[in-house]
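Section handout 9: paired folding examples.
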Amino acid sequence: MAREGSLEAPTRHPIDWKNPDFYNEELLNKELERVYDICHGCRRCVSLCHAFPTLFDLVDESETMEVDGVAVADYMKVVDHCYLCDLCYLTKCPYVPPHEWQLDFPHLMLRAKAIDHKKNGTSFRNNLLSNTDAVGKTMSTPVLSQVVNFVNKIPLTRAVLDSTLGIHKSAHLPEYHSKTLTKRLKNHASNNEVKATDSTNGKVALFGTCYGEYNEPHLGEDLVAVFEHNKIPVQFINDAKCCGMPKMESGDLEAVEAAMHHNIPMLAKLVDEGFDLIAPVPSCALMFKQELPLLFPDNADVEKVGKAFFDPFEYLMLRHKAGELNTEFKNSLGKVAYHVACHQRVQNFGMKTRDLLQLIQDTEVTAIERCSGHDGTYAVKKEFHDISMKIAKPVINRVKQAEPDHYGSDCPMAGHQIANGMDDKKPEHPLTLLRQAYGI
């Protein structure tokens, strides 16, 4: 007899994407039907994203009002709205492994996306949005970056992008900087002495991320300033490529593998040299900590790198636990509305950003645990932008109600998504706020 729910901690099985059966459409549709039927009978995840309301509407509007009444051709309508945030698996679903029903909704959606990519390829727009390294390198060239940033603010230009590429005219588009993070940290050298603790090696290598490299290089600068202020030597990783998350979200697992083969050898070498690894964007840390080990379970270097990766605030709070965090703050922050990024929540280390910011004198932090609806590219796409803003509305309302002096998210894109529904106040990343508090 099947149990209702599971008392054990969720466990993840490797993604068997090299198996030919992984790409068998008939087997996929049988598994989608099985999982959709379980979800239809539960409906616990209805408020997480638009994938579940889409599924439940398909069921409720069918002749049988059951999953067997939904056309197989409509199954992908659900898949299209899943951006692999992983919250359903980690926070809501009672039927994940080790439950006998073995339900892994996000990775089933990934399988469907991979089959669709193999069968139909990727559209020009989606390929453009997921080619973060190539686009970033081109757009950040001198002069061109200024032109792109200027024209992206012109309504006529945005209308053209909307009608031709399907990039929504109201979506936030990131700026590009000719002075990239690599250029800014070119001459960085640390004089701090390495001091290890039971849980940290005391020196870190910074994986700047493609977003941090081209779009918001100040994030890497803020991280370096904060870590060096805490006597933690930082070495910047040159020649890193995108972690592969944007390609994974579009189902292009071969591109993920190519990025893995580029990044992992250099990261594994750094781990062997005693470095811990840090990324300022939660999605990138999650990619190395969870997704790559599940995609490449037999690769010892992937496992090694995954175990060495930390979120910045996770790392700083581990140092604090060992008595190695500088808590001499020069400035208070007042009221802070802090959005907890989905890809940070599912790393299961708790709200360390909130905990650290609350150490600052005269600082009150309101944590908001709800999806912003951005997902890197989902909120940019014409067909999904309005839905993404609907998902973000409860977060935006909470920020407004808090009447904060500052607001932001560990995910910089989520911060801008929230700003899209605000009046004028701009988001500030928690690393930037921490640097302000230290007065450095």
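Moving on to protein 2 of 2.
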Amino acid sequence: MQRLLLWVDRVSTWLGQFFAWLIVALTLMISWEVFSRYVLNDPHDWALDAQIMMYGTLFMMAGAYTLSKNGHVRGDVLYGFFRPRTQATLDLILYMLFFMPGIVALTWAGWTFAQESLAIRESTFSATPLPLYPFKFVIPIAGGMLLLQGLVEVVRCIRCIQDGVWPSREQDVEEVDVDKLKAMVHVKDEDIAALDKFVAPGAGSTK
């Protein structure tokens, strides 16, 4: 079972990392459009629509990836003090009450929108229209992946309630822990305070 959970994690991670390259493409496109508009005096009417679709695709396809890393924002002021079993019980209740119905509705409605868009070959409203229906299919695909990852999280909650510890996750890029970083490079708070004198003279003095 654990191998299956980690396999879904890896698929979500791969998709998130793959579509993350849209950040690079989006940056290049915006830079070129700014240069073309203000230097070459040759703006493109389709550029904004393309940028919106690229950003929307990036945002939607990052959902399952973020969930697999337990990275979605949560109100965890008290949550972090609870025991793993209590955390898992709360998560399981919230997944079943809110997450699952919401994501199922998103996936179902997204599939309906995508089919309707394909039927009429929907395009953007601009002088140079871009096909919009391929982008609409991103909605049910992203919803399906988010639903699959959500099922994995439900299984993790059940296993944590049974075992008292959270099952492992697929590891990826994590935020830098400042204390760990200082320990790795053997830097103490006193060393940082000594350097502050040179960066901001007088910062340590009081008047």
